TrEMBL record:
Lineage of the organism: Bacteria, Pseudomonadati, Pseudomonadota, Alphaproteobacteria, Hyphomicrobiales
Family: Belongs to the sulfotransferase 1 family.
Pfam families, per the entry: Sulfotransfer_1 (PF00685)
Gene Ontology terms for molecular function: sulfotransferase activity
Sulfotransferase domain boundaries: 32-288
Residue ranges of coiled coil: none
Species: Hansschlegelia zhihuaiae
InterPro entries in alphabetical order: P-loop_NTPase (IPR027417), Sulfotransferase_dom (IPR000863)
Keyword terms, alphabetized: Transferase
Keyword Transferase listed: yes
SUPFAM superfamilies: P-loop containing nucleoside triphosphate hydrolases
Gene3D superfamilies: P-loop containing nucleotide triphosphate hydrolases
Organism domain of life: Bacteria
Protein name (record): Sulfotransferase domain-containing protein
Length: 307
């Protein structure tokens, strides 16, 4: 309601595993115009990083987005190396996180973009990411100092088995899925958070880019829109994948082209059984409630759930 100050989220815990070191946020110094791009993972993170980069730099060609927009809570490189590098950035900063809200420091100064995607599509994209990871990827996550908990191992080749293990283990072998979605959905009315959805980006990219520009208070010169939209399209990102992917894709067999894979939904439809889908959908409703589960599956929200 007008005149009532928002209740800002507070950090209540740390998350550590083969990927995470959430303590990095404790020492991060926010600026008034910071942008934080948040997802569970494999939900359109790289796509939205590209969009934000194109808006900030007004359609410039060949931006090194992966270098400019680090995954802050990834534990490699360590925070003693990462934080000074981010502090030294002179451009408007746009950072990436895969943490739930209560494991990061949420700042009223920053603008937050959260992207949702149906968990079945997430897993299909994640399986491609995981099954093509090479020895360098495993060494970076498992053998560098600071890992907490068990190492991550190779995935089963069968994607249905991978999905069922992920569903049964709530995000196994990565990190919990439902709490991530739930935590950001609960904050959807905050004035500095914009919920996005992979389906909406697919259906109306120009409209979504304009919405993001307005939310981030980025004026765009009329003559720059064509370049911005071209550079935010999947075909352009696939051609220039080495600029969007960490270390230019060195962690994956096939390089950056493997990381920026197909950008499609529904590949699970011919593989999962009706019972598999029923289990997933029942779990989604139980974990998220009807409104959030519907949004996650479709991108659709009722009027009362919109900002």
């Amino acid at each position: 309601m007008p005149g009532i100050s928002p209740h800002w989220p507070e950090k209540t815990r740390e998350l550590h595993n083969h990927h995470f070191d959430s303590t990095v946020w404790n020492d991060f110094r926010f600026r008034d115009d910071d942008v934080v791009i948040a997802t569970y993972a494999k939900s359109g993170t790289t796509w939205v990083q590209q969009i934000v980069a194109q808006l900030i730099f007004q359609g410039v060609e060949d931006l090194p987005v992966a270098e400019m927009s680090p995954w802050l809570d990834l534990r490699v490189p360590p925070k003693a190396e990462k934080l000074p590098a981010v502090e030294a950035q002179a451009h408007r900063r746009f950072l990436k996180t895969h943490l739930p809200v209560d494991a990061l420091v949420y700042s009223p100064k920053a603008k937050y973009l959260y992207i949702g995607r149906d968990g079945r599509d997430v897993v299909w994209s994640m399986h491609n990411h995981h099954v093509n990871a090479n020895e360098l990827w495993y060494r970076a996550l498992n053998d560098t100092p600071g890992r907490v908990g068990p190492p991550i191992g190779p995935p089963p080749a069968d994607v249905r088995r991978y999905f069922l293990e992920w569903l049964q283990g709530d995000g196994h072998p990565f990190w919990p899925f439902w709490e991530n979605i739930r935590s950001w959905w609960a904050m959807r009315e905050l004035p500095n958070l914009l919920l996005l959805h992979f389906n909406e980006l697919k259906a109306d990219l120009p409209g979504q880019v304009r919405c993001i520009a307005a939310f981030l208070d980025i004026p765009v010169e009329p003559g720059r829109w064509d370049a911005i939209l071209e550079h935010c399209g999947f075909a352009y990102m696939k051609r220039h994948a080495s600029k969007s992917v960490p270390l230019g894709g060195a962690f994956w067999d096939g390089g950056a082209q493997t990381f920026v894979h197909q950008g499609t939904n529904g590949r699970w439809r011919d593989i999962l059984t009706a019972e598999d889908c029923r289990r997933y959908e029942e779990t989604a409703r139980h974990e998220l409630g009807e409104a959030c589960a519907h949004w996650l599956a479709t991108g659709e929200r009722s009027d009362q759930d919109r900002r």
